[in-house]
Amino acid sequence: MADVKAPLYTSDGTAKGDFKLDAEVFGIEPNLSVLHQVITAQLAAKRSGTASTKTRAEVRGGGRKPWRQKGLGRARQGSIRAPHWVGGGIAHGPKPRDFTQRTPKKMKRLALRSALSARASEEAVMVIEDIDWSSPKTKQAITLLEAIGAGGKSLVVLGKLDGTAGRSFRNLPDVHLCEPGHLTPYDVLWADQVIFTSHTVGSVGRSSSYEVSESDFVKDEGGDS
């Protein structure tokens, strides 16, 4: 398997050569069918599924026959709450449902590796050696992104200890922050470039112990997904 490399930068945007990526994660042939299925499942899990309409049995009123069956020259009617009446019930309308799809873990891991490999083949993966900023400043984050040529939407993968960097990036509208354990294929494909630190890219490289985020594939019972 050929070596896969990404440009390496310091926290001020100075180029420091190349960083060797794990070929098993960043250098495979993308499986587009699995990638499509997993992303479809992820987006489906985000649907709230709260749309609801009333059937003719649930609409208030309409219990009495509006006119007698025969003798008036009009079509027979049994209720003014039938679906063809204004204000009547809805036929075959939406009801609350759960859109969550079951997706095997192996498919999720393969889809994530496919997405990362696709971005790496496009030279859209970058690595920052160490973000050692003393205080959180959005201006520092903007300067870094401009220095490394990251235009458009950026996915920045930070660790739990990178709180200063996270507070620096979080106010930028075109930047999405993510921890290694919550990285999903949709996040990777949403971004024009994926930016790792030298610590987080190593976490993703340990593919045998790496788990794809399960929370993005399960509806949140506490509120809308």
Provide key terms for this protein.
225 residues; alpha/beta; 2 domains; 7 helices
What do you see in this structure?
The protein is an alpha/beta fold and 225 residues long. It has 2 domains: 4-48 and 100-217, Ribosomal Protein L4, Chain: A (3-Layer(aba) Sandwich), CATH 3.40.1370; 53-93, no CATH class. 28% of the residues lie in helices and 13% in strands. It is built from 7 helices and 6 strands. The protein has helices at residues 23-26, 32-45, 105-121, 138-147, 163-169, 185-190, 200-205; strands at 4-9, 15-21, 125-128, 154-157, 175-178, 193-197. Strands 2-1-3-6-4-5 form a 6-stranded mixed β-sheet. Strand 4, helix 5 (163-169) and strand 5 form a beta-alpha-beta unit. Helix 2 (32-45) packs across helix 3 (105-121). The mean pLDDT is 88.
Summarize the helix and strand pattern as letters: EEHHHEHEHEHEH
Percentage of residues in DSSP E strands? 5-15%
The CATH first-level class of the largest domain comes to Alpha Beta
**Average pLDDT:** 88
Oligomer: single chain
Helix/strand structural class: alpha/beta
CATH architecture of the largest domain: 3-Layer(aba) Sandwich
The largest sheet, given as strand count, sense and whether it forms a barrel, is:
6 strands, mixed
CATH topology of the largest domain: Ribosomal Protein L4, Chain: A
Helix content: 25-40%
Q: CA-to-CA gap between the ends? A: 40 Å
Low-confidence stretches: none
Query: Which strand order spans the largest sheet, edge to edge or round the barrel?
Result: 2-1-3-6-4-5
Number of helical stretches of at least 4 residues? 7
Radius of gyration: 26 Å
The number of domains is: 2
CATH superfamily of the largest domain: Ribosomal protein L4/L1
Tell me, briefly, the overall form: elongated
List how many beta strands DSSP finds.
6
